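Quick one:
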Amino acid sequence: MRREIAPCCQEQQIHPEALEKVRSLLPPDERLYDLAELFKIFGDSTRLKILYALLEGELCVCDLAGLMAVTQSAVSHQLRVLKNSKLIKFRREGKTIYYSLADSHVERILSQGMEHIEE
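Output:
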């Protein structure tokens, strides 16, 4: 398989005004790092499957494990990652803990990502 090379300028010429404008509008490096970390969370198909399942409503660990045909321990690990990233929340009802999406931002991220790959 042959790799394509991105088109480049034929002449090397820096445009200081354009660089300064863009530089002033870029988010701080710390914010970009945090954003990159968030996107890493979406880089795992198991976590995406959990998020898509939670789009339909609250589910407990047992429900998610049954849906995905994996152990409760495996689901719990992924839920911890998603919770630490503030993508999901939980509530306790007796001895059962129900998980749901943290907010509508998560739904929009999933929706826009799917829309992008389906174009």
